[in-house]
Amino acid sequence: MGKTAVAVTVTVTVVGVAAVACAVIVNRRMKNGAKWDRTMEILNEFEEKCGTHIGKLKQVAEAMVVEMNAGLASDNASRVKMLISFVDNLPTGDEHGLFYALDLGGTNFRVLRVQLGGKEAGIKRQEFAEVSIPPELMVGKSEELFGYIAAELAKFVAQEGPEFQLSPGRERELGFTFSFPVMQTSIDSGTLIKWTKGFSIDDSVGQDVVEELTKALRKKGVEMHVTALVNDTVGTLAGGRFSNKDVIAAVILGTGTNAAYVESAQAIPKWRGPSPRSGEMVINMEWGNFQSTHLPLTEYDNALDLDSLNRGEQTYEKLISGMYLGEIVRRVLCRMAEEASFFGNNIPPKLLTPFILRTPDMSAMHHDSSPDLRVVGSKIKTILEIPDLSLKKRKVIHKLCVIVATRGARLAAAGIFGILKKAGRDTLANCENQRTVVAIDGGLYEHYTEFRECLEDTLRELVGDRVWEKISIEHANDGSGIGAALLAASHSRYLEDDEK
Ligand code: ADP
Ligand code: MG
To answer: Which amino acid residue places its CA nearest to atom 25 of ligand 1?
Structure first.
């Protein structure tokens, strides 16, 4: 596996160098006017292929609904997995008591505790700590990673002050947000399918992650029961629902993208379990893997996919999420450098480095409102280590950022429109008497204002002004951690005692 990947990379590099060499020879013969014409040709062609007119977005939304239905029918019928989260009891606001959460999904993990006071008092107190994971533990042994996490949790529990109170005779309960692909078997168990995001710990693949954490907690002497295992979208949905009962879906737009929503249990043919008391089940869509012929894919997207570690997978995510947007811009700039001498007769070596242009840099350039596009100039100068660019070239780069972000934001809106259609919240007749709220979290949505505004404008365009009045989008800031604690509360093992 590893060897194949290396061989492929080498081939790609060799082909790349050959193409570059030819381009440079051709370009020396090109007149300045012709170079500029070629630049504009590349730009215009790219813009056209990225087109997301409203009719196309409606087709994308329709296709999303088709995939959602297929995924709900059986596990292997769709690329959109529609995983059953076993969350059938979203928080209502009535929850009481002390609960913990652990949020693991990137280079940091967060631990937190909340004291819940029911309808009147809500979240009475909360405290959290953020801990970075030593890189060697991300590729080591399962026992070491979970041991480290358990030790940090033990420290955090030891710092619990008297203002946090556990009901007498009860064990502390924890909600575990684990944002990696898991085959869930109940609300508090699930086996790890694979690691992503730079983690690679072979001996935990196929293991029950709750068992691993529980074992580690025992070893460190932490008395705590893992009550709920969820991912970040499900946690965000729970956090959103706690503060607003009209929340029906949650979307993550960060390094990657995913969505979860509330489905009627009867509409899940593949569900074999008992009918939940609430009649509802939260579905973790894993929508990043959505694919459709209606998606406006360009040759740059296809090349990005071929060079990626997960070739052929996560097609939708590669058009939308923060990990990829800047990289798409870089790839178009490469073509302009090769075929239109955009940066002069030589191609800046830095430009050939994959992922060197990060989405936050792209976002800074996109938001540049200075008349001479100063930010674009200085970003390109520092990232690519090249001298100043003319204003008309800065305008081209700015335009590229606009094209890529607009396509991503509009496609994300189409996905949300798909969820609204599936949930029957896309027509006035159904929306008249109820509000619909979608909770969104993630660094891309939070910090990339143009992206966020474009997404919201497009959703409004898709649903129409009358329905839009009944819909709102809420930023669920860090909802996934608190959401996991709330889910531990709403699925507490002491629930029946409480009812008595
Ligand atoms: P994660 O998705 O890894 O859990 P976040 O939700 O914090 O973490 O999202 C981080 C991602 O958000 C980054 O990978 C980046 O792509 C994107 N991002 C962060 N800051 C900005 C910004 N200023 N502009 C655009 N995108 C940003
Ligand atoms: Mg996150």
So the answer is: 360
